[in-house]
């Protein structure tokens, strides 16, 4: 039982996920610090307010609602998402498209409808398997596949 747990923990994808979570947490704290130190004060200057949303509250009766914390968290989230998208997702997508190999379509898997019984048959077929009527094979697909000669 413990050997299975050890194998699970020592698998590469679990360790990679743990490292990714640790780096993500550190990155989030950096972005949150940057947001609180620079972005929030700049927004405060632009709007003519204090610039520190953490202290912004409103009260209903004796209950205090610190909506400034939600605004600060939202700003940090948007900045984190934008940085991750533009610095990681966009370049990685470009790299994947650059090195991706196009899959050649297998002509034997292409399908079409039989003109007589409207049943789906292979595009390179010369006879329908359902109604046994002769059909004309699709020429462009037929050129890609070596069809054995009839016996």
Overall description:
A hairpin with a 2-residue loop joins strand 1 (58-60) and strand 2 (63-65). Helix 2 (12-47) crosses helix 3. The chain is elongated. Strands 1-2 form a two-stranded antiparallel ribbon. Strands 3-4 form a two-stranded antiparallel ribbon. It has four helices and four strands. By secondary structure, it is mainly alpha-helical. The mean pLDDT is 78. It has helices at 2-10, 12-47, 67-99, 139-144; strands spanning 58-60, 63-65, 111-113, 120-122.
Query: What general outline do the C-alpha atoms trace?
Result: elongated
Number of DSSP helices? 4
N to C succession of SSEs: HHEEHEEH
Largest sheet: 2 strands, antiparallel
Please tell me the overall pLDDT.
Answer: 78
Q: Report the sheet-strand fraction.
A: 5-15%
In short:
The protein is mainly α. It contains 4 helices and 4 strands, in the order H-H-E-E-H-E-E-H.
Summarize the helices and strands and which ones pair or pack.
Elements: H1 2-10, H2 12-47, E1 58-60, E2 63-65, H3 67-99, E3 111-113, E4 120-122, H4 139-144
Antiparallel strand pairs: 1-2, 3-4
Characteristics of this structure?
two-stranded antiparallel sheet; two-stranded antiparallel ribbon; elongated
